[in-house]
Write a structure and sequence with these properties.
The chain is α/β, with parallel strands linked by helices. It is about 45% helix and about 25% strand. The protein is built from 21 helices and 22 strands. The relative contact order is 0.06.
Length: about 575
């Protein structure tokens, strides 16, 4: 048994000094006699408990008991004090005002020279703040701060417990929001955060009692469902989640349309370890993105090859950009009023020695994800300028305007105007022959910087058009702020214009509003005679699509223009 006695050296100090130290320490101190009656407390005791010294002298420490510890707790505590001479631990006590608080408490026995018990003393500190911080940290390690749902750590732990405590099949869904970076870049992170919260709220409405749903990363969510007997059940769940994105998100007075791509892995056939299951679901999600987005895909073994293929594709793309190994095809745009070719759209093509012909649907998204879209866009513009010069050198005096797609990331660069102006000047190509196509999402931020850029570009002679209109925000009210020449309706509306009345109504409304703003309308993706006829009846200005011509190489385009003019003249005879 430890016998506490004052060290001899302390006896050399004055009682006044000892008393000053006793009363100025921040820890509460309580001294009792051998019968556990309180004989002395310091000022910190009074401040921490709310009791004055006069209120507790002669009383027992039980005056502070909170009732949170049971008899067994005190039995163990006193057993330690009697056998070891001290006890230390966390305990909940009660202040005079009734508030319960946690403290760290150390109790010691004091014996005289003869070994007789004379006193007990306790030293304690209020650890309420530490406990609150501890609680917050625990919540943060389990909950996502923004969406208030489980986070990556909690998901991994819960899923680990599930797969290790049952023999049932489990579906793991990896959910990634499509083109979410563009929303953050155009509308700002605050709007992006509001959308993430609403995404979590919507998906939470279908979460079952045994399901696990969590935010895994920036715009990534994960979902696990147990007792999956057939893959079809996981597919139905994925479809239900995708349906939740059909309604627009209303944030800051704007309608924002967001879609999601989902990858699915199944325990145990795709793996028995959490990391592997999530990895495979992630790979399946990327496969869904590469094949059009806004859909789901199951993991399959060939995706291993695909991930290696992406590495090769990126390496070859970098080389191709450096060597400018691209060529341009041009798709004519037909003015419906006079049936004349009023312009063409430049569409990039790439044939690689190692990979063969690579579809733009493969290398454009990769370029966007890696930032290579900026140098690629500039290579495309150079190629267009070269083709224009080549056509001029062959005696083609009437050169029709060429529209070039401008990536959002490229447009957002501070030196964007200087860079494209440098290319145009280098090849002595007039800006009046070029039309810059910007997606709806790119300009939707509606900032002074974007408007200033567009006005400057228009002043330099470039024509400006909004591409893929209707896919992002479907709002026409902001258009009057921009110096636009053309509005291009997305092909998804045109393809169903003769089938679905709601698509027809939307297209008609867009044409009407655009004309009121003196903006000409282009319909892209026109493939049938009925589509062309209906668009003409609606007053659409320009048509582009396979109904008139596929994208053509530069020489083929010149031949097409010549034949088209002959056709027009014959019709006018």
């Amino acid at each position: 048994m430890e016998k506490q006695q004052p060290p001899a050296r302390l006896q050399t100090y004055s009682n006044e000094l000892m008393e000053q130290i006793f009363h100025t320490t921040v820890e509460g101190i309580m001294i009792t006699n051998e019968k556990m009656q309180i004989t002395l407390v310091n000022h910190a005791f009074e401040a921490l408990t709310g009791y004055k010294s006069s209120e507790v002298l002669g009383k027992f420490p039980s005056i502070l008991q909170s009732g949170k510890q049971d008899a067994d707790f005190y039995k163990v505590m006193w057993s330690d004090i009697q056998s070891k001479g001290f006890w230390k631990g966390e305990i909940w006590n009660r202040r005079k005002n009734g508030e319960i608080y946690p403290e760290i408490l150390a109790i010691h026995s004091v014996y005289d020279d003869a070994g007789r018990l004379t006193n007990y003393y306790g030293i304690f500190s209020d650890i309420s703040l530490e406990k609150e911080t501890e609680k917050e940290l625990e919540e943060l390690t389990q909950n996502d701060f923004l969406t208030n749902i489980s986070n990556r750590n909690a998901f991994n732990e819960l899923l680990f417990d599930k797969v290790n405590s049952s023999k049932d099949s489990h579906a793991i869904l990896f959910i990634d929001l499509d083109r979410f970076k563009q929303i953050n870049d155009t509308l700002g992170n605050e709007v992006g955060d509001l959308i993430l919260k609403e995404v979590a709220n919507r998906i939470n409405t279908i979460v079952g009692p045994s399901d696990i749903f969590a935010r895994y990363g920036a715009d990534e969510f994960v979902y696990s469902r147990s007792n999956i007997e057939y893959q079809k059940e996981a597919a139905l769940l994925a479809k239900d989640i995708i349906k939740l994105f059909h309604r627009p998100f209303h944030v800051c007075g704007t309608e924002v349309y967001v879609t999601a791509s989902i990858g699915i892995s199944i325990f145990p056939q795709d793996g028995k370890h959490i990391e592997k299951l999530i990895y495979k679901a992630d790979k399946a999600m990327y496969f869904a993105k590469q094949n059009g987005r806004n859909q789901y895909a199951f993991y399959f073994d060939d995706l291993k090859k695909d991930s290696k293929g992406l590495i090769v594709l990126e390496a070859e793309l970098r080389k191709a950009i450096q060597n400018k190994d691209f060529f341009i095809h041009y798709q004519p745009k037909i003015g419906l009023a006079k049936q004349d070719i009023i312009g063409v759209e430049a569409l990039v093509r790439w044939k690689n020695d190692k990979l063969g012909f690579v579809s733009p649907s493969e290398f454009i998204p990769l370029a966007e994800d890696t930032g290579l879209i900026i140098p690629l866009s500039e290579v495309i513009l150079e190629k267009v300028c070269i083709d224009i010069l080549e056509a001029r050198s062959q005696g083609n005096i009437h050169i029709i305007p060429v529209s070039v797609n401008i990536a959002s990331l490229h447009f957002q660069q501070d030196d964007f105007i200087e860079r494209i102006n440098s290319i145009v000047m280098q090849y002595n190509c007039s800006p009046h022959l070029l039309e810059l196509e910007l997606t709806e999402r790119t300009v939707m931020k509606d900032s002074d910087d974007i408007i200033g850029k567009l006005i400057k570009l228009k002043g330099m002679g470039f024509k400006i058009s909004i591409d893929d209109f209707g896919t992002g925000y479907s709002s026409l009210s902001y258009l009057n702020r921009f110096p636009l020449n053309y509005l291009k309706i997305d092909r998804s509306f045109i393809q169903q214009i003769t089938i679905l009345q709601d698509k027809q109504a939307i297209v008609e409304a867009i044409i009407l509003m655009a004309h009121r703003l003196r903006i000409k309308v282009i319909a892209e993706g026109v493939e049938t005679k009925d589509q062309a006829r209906l668009l003409k009846e609606m007053g659409c200005d320009i048509i582009q699509g396979y109904y008139y011509s596929k994208p053509l190489a530069a020489k083929e385009l010149l031949d097409f223009i010549e034949l088209w003019e002959i056709y027009r003249q014959e019709r006018n005879i």
